[in-house]
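Dear support,

Our group has been running a series of protein-ligand predictions, and this particular one with tryptophan is the one our PI (initials K.S.) wants archived with full inputs and outputs. We had some confusion internally about which version of the output was final, so please treat the block below as the authoritative record. The input we submitted was:
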Amino acid sequence: MENQNTVRKPRALSCIQPSGVPTLGNYLGALRNWVDMQDEYECFFAVADLHAITVRQEPAKFRQQIREMFALLLAIGLNPEKSLLFVQSQVPSHAQLAWLLACHTQYGELSRMTQFKDKAQKHADNINLGLFAYPSLMAADILLYRPDVVPVGADQKQHVELTRDIGERFNSLYGDVFVIPEPTIMKTGARVRSLQEPARKMSKSDENQNAFISLKDDPDTVMRKFRRAVTDSEACVCYGEGKDGINNLMEIYSACTGKPLDGIEAEFDGRGYGDFKTAVGEAVADTLRPIQERFREFMADKAQLDALMKQGAERAETVARRTLDKAMKKMGFVII
Ligand code: TRP
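Confirmed final output from the archive:
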């Protein structure tokens, strides 16, 4: 019923795994869009820690990464007064609904997931049931909150489509329980590429540390990495074919300063790459500085951080539980 109510804002949900520090690419391409969505949508954002254990995690490090990811979401400007921020494992309904949905997900469907095939190849010694069933848990994350849109990167589109199939299957078996979300690929933010091999996407798992900017990189590191960024021999700050390196730097500069590409060409007309790289480095350092300051503040107050997690988890569970109960009741479970 609540979905037919036209006065409410559309709902959005997305999650991020706590696997290492996000890159500038994750921020400019996705996370920053989450911040912008907060006014237009009723937002649910979660740290998907249950998904992270499909590959081995070292417990002490894992605990730290979960806290850090939650603090980072706050630091980039997600506001717990406006949006519901929580940690997936702290909301028991996720694992519960995941089981119900797993029983409505076919082996053949899961076998076709490209992320499963990739990860199974990368971690050939640990192709566990969780890795295979990952999309059923993701479907639970989504369907519990009845979102209208699920902003994800292109790599997650297949999982959102499977979520729709599972939700529709469930609804047609038991009656309307789930809202089927739109498979929203975010109105793309900047597509940030590797600073060393600009034909490739910027990735935090790149072996070459100079290829990516981590959101934790200090200004000196940022400047050094941009100074070493791969460009070309043309010495013209202009956007064009065969100029992947410069195109990438221009896009990063544009995303950090709000300046359009042609304005950037004009600004650096007749100036060398050295000047330009310095300007890009400074723009990025300026973008990261306030995030890093807030991150340090949130990490310094563990009691506050835990209280915010608890508040988010309780609110999320209230919403999620309602959907879970409804699904269980429709399936014939005895609700007490
Ligand atoms: N699988 C997503 C990723 O790795 C993270 C994720 C988990 C997610 N649950 C989700 C994204 C629900 C969107 C909605 O990026």
